[in-house]
Amino acid sequence: MCGRFFRDVSWATLREWYDLFSVTSPNLEPRYNIAPTQDVMIIGKARVKGGGTRREIRWAHWGLIPSWAKDARMAGNMINARAETVAEKPAFRAAFKRRRCLVPADGFFEWIKTPDGKQPFNIHHSDGHPMTFAGLWEENEELGVRSCTFLTSAANDFMRPMHHRMPVLLNPDQYDLWLDYDAPADQVQELIKPYRGNDLEAWPVSKAVNSVRNDERGNLDKVKD
To answer: Which of 101, 98, 110 is nearest to 148 (CA)?
Structure first.
């Protein structure tokens, strides 16, 4: 699953990496312990006058609230969507067809059981490049909220010792297809398989990250095993 992540990318890098339209920097502060039910940055596709589309930043509540939901409390159980069933589940299938998004990050946290309790790990790309989760978003007009969820897949070989699930990670050459709502379903399904790259790195970090109140840069630093 994906239950905590961090984002420390600069606006200049974000704009270039995701080919964003905006020339004005948003109110973008680094976050070192982003948790469910908080607002997160997503990147979606917007239509422009005269035809065509562009990528733009939006903000969404982490925990999907379907357009038909009458109660926002269900969001806490909808922070992740399983890639294997996302196309069929009533809560996710409409968003999977028409409201896919990118979720910028620098990495995420996972916990491993040890004799001394659960040890958190910082998982990130070894080259320092941004990490991109495959996400879905929804707009619930009755409740007045935009929300999102992140897809998860079975763990790849790297992640399996830590957890049996992991976020669906996208590479830059896959962004256009993921955001193309008219793309063939079989091509989109190919994007949500376990991550095939060999560029992930992990190290143990302070247990201070266990508390969502701790949102400090030190959460990312390596500690002794």
So the answer is: 101
CA distances from 148 to 52, 55, 178, 207 (A): 24, 17, 15, 27
CB 60 within 8 A of CB 137: yes
pLDDT computed for residue 45 by the predictor: 87
Annotated catalytic residue, options 56, 84, 110, 216: 110
pTM across the whole model: 0.94
Instruction: Determine the topology of domain 5-220 in CATH.
Output: hypothetical protein yedk fold (3.90.1680)
Amino acid (one-letter) located at 144: G
- State yes or no: is 2 an active-site residue: yes
Q: Which of 2, 101, 138, 148 is catalytic?
A: 2
| Predicted pLDDT at 1 | 65
**At 59, is the secondary structure helix, strand, or coil?**
strand
Alpha-helical regions (H) of the chain: 11-17, 93-98, 175-179, 185-191
To the query of whether residue 110 is one of the catalytic residues in this protein, the response is yes
Element (H, E) at 200: strand 200-204
User: For residue 225, what pLDDT is reported?
Assistant: 66
pLDDT attached to residue 76? 85
If the chain, 225 residues long, is cut into consecutive pieces of 10 residues, what is the mean pLDDT of each piece? 90 92 74 96 83 87 94 90 96 96 97 93 97 97 96 97 96 96 95 96 97 96 87
Residue ranges of the domains in the chain? 5-220
